[in-house]
Design a protein that fits this description.
Helix content is about 25%, strand content about 15%. It has about 550 residues and is an alpha/beta fold. It folds into three domains: about 375 residues, TIM Barrel; about 60 residues, Oligo-1,6-glucosidase, Domain 2 (Oligo-1,6-glucosidase, domain 2, Alpha-Beta Complex), CATH 3.90.400; about 80 residues, no CATH class. It has an eight-stranded parallel beta sheet with strand order 11-10-9-5-2-1-13-12. A five-stranded antiparallel beta sheet has the order 14-16-17-15-19. Strands 6-8-7 form a three-stranded antiparallel beta sheet, with no helix packed on it. The chain binds 1-O-alpha-D-glucopyranosyl-D-fructose. 1-O-alpha-D-glucopyranosyl-D-fructose binds next to loops. The site of 1-O-alpha-D-glucopyranosyl-D-fructose has 13 residues, from loops. Belongs to the glycosyl hydrolase 13 family. One of its GO terms (biological process) is oligosaccharide catabolic process. GO terms for molecular function: alpha-amylase activity.
Length: about 550
């Protein structure tokens, strides 16, 4: 039935709790803030919310260093608040997804603290990866593995007797020790965490860094990038873990889902995680990583549809998240592909062009079959904040790269809700504290309040887009076919690039190489012009929604 399969075509809104809304006015977003803004999400027209980690955490990596999964970080609220939020969302028709981070915990997790107080070789240490160093006195790390956050992956600790001792593994920051998945406690504990949150009514689990948790126990150096052979990436044993998680999810009913963060280049290896007894879906980063060119996007769409069809899993479409450069900024650059999704300093950016492309990209991704993820603030067209004051930056990626990487704070700046006022409506109350990251002074114009009144705003575009997606059976279904429109209709006159439309009545001839066109259902089409010249729309097209001004029959 459709309720059980909701995740196949849902629109899922990602909330970064620290930056969404601040109910107690202390400068940090919280669950009270989120609860007060649920009507906004209903109005926007999303089906579900994914919360990035809200558990007890020292926040060494924005909450991806979990010290206790069964309690909410006091900065965000209490477990009772989370339960109330989940229930209120459900009553409004919004499903909820929580984040689980199997690769690592926090150095403040009781099991890690226990491990530090226990001698080398003790059972307490076996839940993590402790190993002797190399060199005469163990002064060199056990391997040369490089962290995703730059730098080494091992930190040396003292033995309980005070002598320098073994090293422990952390693929991310030192505050994030990696779990040893060969240990039965680690397996059982994570399945129990899943049950804990499913019991509280969440509809899904987002699985962080899902291709990393299993390690080769011999700890060899990296000599192969091939899946299954790499010492810690995409190892075959991972699939047993996720089969176990799928059994837990299924035991709560067919309406519970798993969505994996599986960063893998090989679509065949990626699809293995989506087999019928593993994850229901996984983020499609290939699409996000492509430059804004018709051929690239077409190829990504086709290979995504192919690899998912084989395993009968629905694709996902993701334009951004809390780790990558905001789309408006990224698309405003000469080449807007993955190299620019990663953070970069000082790249020339045309925000106006970026905004037009981001609007077109929204229509394109929402018109494709599968589920759609929207990162908070993208519906407002917020740009990346690239000039945060040095003292405000808190992302470990920045510090660990020695400042070479700007870090990910620029896409995590608290949302503007009102045109004026302290913290632009982010903080509630008479006199809210300054937000934990400062908002640019011109963000009042990008606020929810300002955009609500402007029919041409990004917010209004998103709202209309999601309403159409809900209403049109062609967009809800899985039927998809490329439209081969006639090339001779292309290239009429001058113009600037990027616009998209969802048009009624399908047409069947190509508009040229820089146009993407496909049909959904019987009579719906999506046409995206990535070229520099406007294209003529086929006769008898009725336009449901356009990301740009359509003059006569020309798509700019
Ligand atoms: O990200 C996984 C990941 O691979 C990141 O290191 C990514 O490469 C990086 O952010 C550059 O874009 C997940 C979370 O989404 C991220 O926020 C966490 O920091 C990371 O896991 C560790 O838990």
């Amino acid at each position: 039935d459709t309720a059980a399969r909701w995740w196949r075509n849902a629109v899922i809104y990602q909330i970064y709790p620290r930056s969404f809304a601040d109910g107690d006015g202390d400068g940090t977003g919280d669950l009270a803030g989120i609860r007060s803004r649920l009507p906004y999400l209903v109005d926007l027209g999303v089906d579900a919310i994914w919360f990035t980690p809200w558990y007890v955490s020292p926040l060494a990596d924005g909450g991806y260093d979990v010290a206790d999964y069964r309690r909410i970080d006091p900065a965000f609220g209490s477990l009772a608040d989370a339960e109330a939020l989940i229930a209120e969302a459900a009553a409004l028709g919004l499903r909820t997804i929580v984040d689980v981070v199997p690769n690592h915990g926090s150095d403040q997790h009781p099991w890690f603290r226990e491990a530090l107080l226990s001698p080398p070789g003790s059972p307490q240490r076996q839940r993590f990866w402790f190993a002797d160093g190399k060199g005469d006195n163990g002064e060199l790390p056990p391997t040369n593995w490089v962290s995703s956050f730059d730098g080494g992956t091992w930190t040396r600790v003292k033995n309980p007797d005070g002598e320098l001792g073994q090293w422990y593994l952390h693929l991310f920051a030192p505050e994030q020790p990696d779990w040893n998945w060969n240990h039965p406690d680690v397996v059982a504990e994570h399945e129990d965490v899943l049950r804990f949150w499913f019991e509280r009514g969440v509809a899904g689990i987002r699985i962080d860094s899902a291709a990393l948790p299993v390690k080769d126990p011999d700890l060899p150096e990296v000599t192969s990038q091939v899946g299954g052979e790499h010492p810690y990436l995409d190892r075959d044993e991972l699939h047993d873990i996720y089969r176990g998680w799928r059994r837990v999810a299924d035991s709560f009913g067919a309406d519970r889902m798993l969505v994996g963060e599986v960063w893998l280049a090989d679509p065949k290896r990626f699809a293995l995680y989506l087999r019928p007894d593993e994850m229901h879906t996984a983020f499609n980063f290939d699409f996000m990583a492509r430059p804004w060119r018709a051929g690239e996007l077409r190829e990504s769409i086709q290979s995504t549809l192919d690899s998912h069809r084989e395993v009968k899993a629905p694709p996902t479409w993701v334009l951004s998240n809390h780790d990558v450069t905001r789309p408006v900024t990224r698309f405003g650059r000469a080449d807007s592909g993955f190299s620019f999704a990663a953070k970069t300093f000082g790249v020339a950016t045309d925000l106006e062009l970026g905004r037009r492309r981001a609007r077109a990209a929204a229509l394109l991704s929402a018109a494709l079959p599968g589920s759609l993820y929207i990162y908070q603030g993208d519906e407002l067209g917020l740009p990346e904040v690239e000039d945060l004051p040095a003292e405000a930056i808190s992302d470990p990626m920045h510090f660990r790269s020695g400042g070479r990487d700007p870090g990910r704070d620029g896409c995590r700046v608290p949302l503007p809700w009102t045109r004026t006022g302290p913290s632009l409506g982010f903080g509630d109350g008479e006199d809210p504290a300054a937000p934990w990251l400062p908002q640019p002074s011109d963000w009042g114009e990008l606020s929810v309040a300002a955009q609500r009144e402007d029919p041409d705003s990004m917010l209004r575009l998103y709202r209309e887009l999601l309403a159409i997606r809900r209403r049109e059976p062609g967009l809800r279904g899985e039927d998809f076919a490329w439209l081969d429109l006639d090339a001779e209709m292309a290239g009429l006159g001058e113009g600037r690039n990027s616009s998209a439309q969802v048009a009624g009545r399908d047409r069947d001839r190509a508009l040229g190489a820089e146009v993407i066109a496909f049909r959904r259902g019987i009579d719906l089409a999506c046409v995206v012009n990535l070229g520099d010249s406007p294209v003529k729309l086929p006769p008898h097209t009725s336009v449901l929604l356009a990301s740009d001004d359509i003059t006569g029959d020309r798509l700019p």
